[in-house]
User: Fold Dehydrogenase/reductase SDR family member 7 isoform X1 from Cucurbita maxima.
Amino acid sequence: MLAVVFFWVSFFLLLLLLFKFATAHGDFTLMSKKHVKREEIEDKVVWITGASRGIGEVLVKQLAGLGAKLIISARDEAGLERVKNELSGKFAPNEVKVLPLDLSSGENKLKEAVEMAESFFPGSGVDYMIHNAAFERPTSNHYIPALSTLKCVSNEIFGNSLKSTALDVSEESMKTTFDVNVLGTISLTRLLAPRMLQRGHGHFVVMSSAAGKTPAPGQAVYSASKHALNGYFHSLRSELYHKGIRVTVVCPGPIETSTGSVVEAIGKKGISEKRLSSERCAELTIIAASHNLKEVWISSQPVLAVMYLVQYMPTIGYWLMDKIGGNRVEAAARKGNTYSLSLLFGKNKSS
Assistant:
């Protein structure tokens, strides 16, 4: 009798676990943290790049509502001013600092930006540096802030229109992607981290991508840049954690954003892809940072399942990606769903 009861209890617990996994918006550790620890955000100085649109804009609005002191950066100064004027919160909008910044402008310009950011709030340096700006340009000539993973920058936000094969990307695109996503981000960190070390605390929040954890057919160079970021910041944390430096690496999958003409244009073509909202992505990012989680995955299915497979069962995970890789690039060319399970069978439709 006890064996039968144990069987059915175990069975229902397994069903519950599978249901939670199927409906989750992130990895199990992240999902266990239900709320933002407001005391970790309120009155803290938060500097965020890529803040003029997309995920960056949503992050800024949520952080303002939590009482953070904000420094917002992007290349688009007019966009930053628009975002600032739309904010409300303990220090918003009047005390929000606008700091135009181009991550590819070179170390001297980045050093000036760090000095300016550190001086904005007397007696308080930067507590959180949110690296949100990113670039992906396999076929586009536009600079695009991370709406995370272009992919969330996932850049799969722009899904189909920006995908190209690994052999088709130009040298210019490769250099530009790495200048912004890797070299600029790392340089800004190298210049800011010593100030944090002097104070004995500081937290880097890195908007990476699921493309930095798994293969990303059609986004090889972007994926390479995010793998590089993951390697650098996990190493940085290991070196400096005992000195008070914290790092949270955020790996979002496909995210829906209501801003940006590219996304709107894709929507008009009738593409139907399941994407997490930018608001939910930003909320989970802030939860992860406030709980000092080291790495989090933000996505709905099937991308989340693929990330688990690649992480814990790599032979199966990479086999799966090999099966869909070519079909995914072809689906993108047809303006089809690049996240459909039908990619396994090469039957992705154009609508």
Observations:
- Residues 24-136+168-255+275-300 form a domain with the Rossmann fold fold (CATH 3.40.50.720).
- Confidence is low (pLDDT under 50) at residues 138-161, 259-271.
- The first strand starts at residue 45 and ends at 48.
